[in-house]
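Posting this for the archive.
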Amino acid sequence: MSGASDIQVVVFGLGDEEFALPVTTVREILDHRNAYRVPHAPDWFLGLTDVRGDSVPMVDLRVRLGMPPVDPTLTTRVLVVDVAGGEGKPLALGMVVDRVLDVATFPAESVESAPDLGGRWRSEQIEAILRRGAGFVALLDPARLFGADGAEAALADLGMAA
């Protein structure tokens, strides 16, 4: 990934893995809440929840990334994220994560292009890899994450795509 500017992200955990989303895409961080189930929805789609008077689709990010689902805990959070939708109109999605770790700024030199990982994480879901101490944080792109594998079509079928 090229560019000379620092990147500010919300870092969160799923299991033992650390992921991040650009802070510019995260509207707010909420405590976990139950969703109203929608029949015939994909397994990663939890249903709808009310966020300040708006119906917001909630997704299980663990399941969307191919991880097993887990029951919510006291640290489970919902990241309300703007995802680029059709006609330039953003779609608000509630992404359920195990825990939010922090909001961090990564210097440009710690940002690397996402390698073709070939395994659990598909490179099209990962925008970049961020170096954090001796470890790594996978920077996700919500548009890629929910535009791949028919996720956008599934949301459209449920009447929720922008």
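The longest strand covers residues 7-14. The chain has a mean pLDDT of 84.
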